[in-house]
Amino acid sequence: MVVTMRIIIAGGHGQVALRLEQLVAARGDEVAGIIRTSTQVGDLLAVGAEPIVCDLESASVTDIAKHLETADAAVFAAGAGPGSGSDRKDSVDRAAAALFADAAEQAGVRRFLIVSAMGADRDPPEGTDPVFAAYLRAKGAADADIRSRPGLEWTILRPGRLTNKPGTGRVTLGESTGRGDVPRDDVAAVLAALLTEPGTAGATVELIDGDTPIAEAAKAAAQR
Questions:
Q1: pLDDT in tens, 161-181
Q2: Of the chain's two ends, which shows fewer C-beta atoms within 10 Å, N or C?
Q3: Is residue 71 domain-resident?
Q4: What is the rounded distance in angstroms from the CA atom of residue 25 to the CA atom of residue 198?
């Protein structure tokens, strides 16, 4: 099997990340996931990914850059997760994203994908749960930071409400899709497709359920 790309994924034990790792490993890419604890190693090995134990909340830019030196692409799919408070939304969803981007630039990795959130481009509506509002603001700040980096060929993916329904392989992907659900399976498959579509560099795209095959949707996004 010929390896075509080496991909490093921050938040490598997340639900979307594990799916992405399995997809890109199966197509012949070399993939590694950055994880917080050695208890997660077995899950990454099971999907064909190399585990890298490195806590993004305490590591330095240089620490992370060393892991990225051999990478062709970097994907930020980390998040503070359910049950975390506003402080960790900022320290993971914003600060760790910026740290990972700093490390990518230091290591000379240009292709950079980040999983954001729909609604991150505007102030949360009045009455939004304070922790969720902090999450959206953190994602928006991370996106703004990534957009400011001319050294990165970045793509920002903003999925709708994530579900664990089986993926359909068909989506709506575009600058503005409206709100909707999307299976984590399809989010991972879209990320895998975007990695091979360099024409999506500089694009911010939303993602929900739809009728367009993923490969076709990714190609269309690259032509915009």
A1: 999 999 999 999 999 999 999
A2: N
A3: yes
A4: 19
The parent domain of residue 181 ranges over: 6-222
Residue positions annotated with a catalytic role: 135
Domain count, the chain: 1
Percent of residues in the chain assigned helix, strand, coil, to nearest 5: 40, 25, 35
**Token pair of 94 as six digits:** 């914003």
Which is it for strands 161-163 and 212-213: parallel, antiparallel or unpaired?
A: unpaired
> Alpha-carbon distance 90 to 220, whole Å?
33
Assess if residue 168 is contained within a domain: yes
Flag whether 1 is in a domain: no
Q: What tens digit of pLDDT does each residue of 7-38 get?
A: 999 999 999 999 999 999 999 999 999 999 99
Q: Are 182 and 163 in contact (CB under 8 A)?
A: yes
Per DSSP, the three-state class of 205 is: strand
CATH number for 54 = 3.40.50.720
- Whole-structure pTM value: 0.95
Are the CB atoms for 179 and 7 separated by under 8 Å?
A: no
Q: How many CA atoms lie within 13 A of 171 on its CB side?
A: 36
Determine which helix (DSSP H) or strand (DSSP E) holds 31, and give its type and residue range.
strand 30-35
Residues 6+ apart with CB under 8 A from 164: 15, 183, 184
Distance CA 104, CA 152 (A): 8
In a domain, 189, yes or no: yes
Task: Please give the structure tokens belonging to residue 166.
Answer: 């089986």
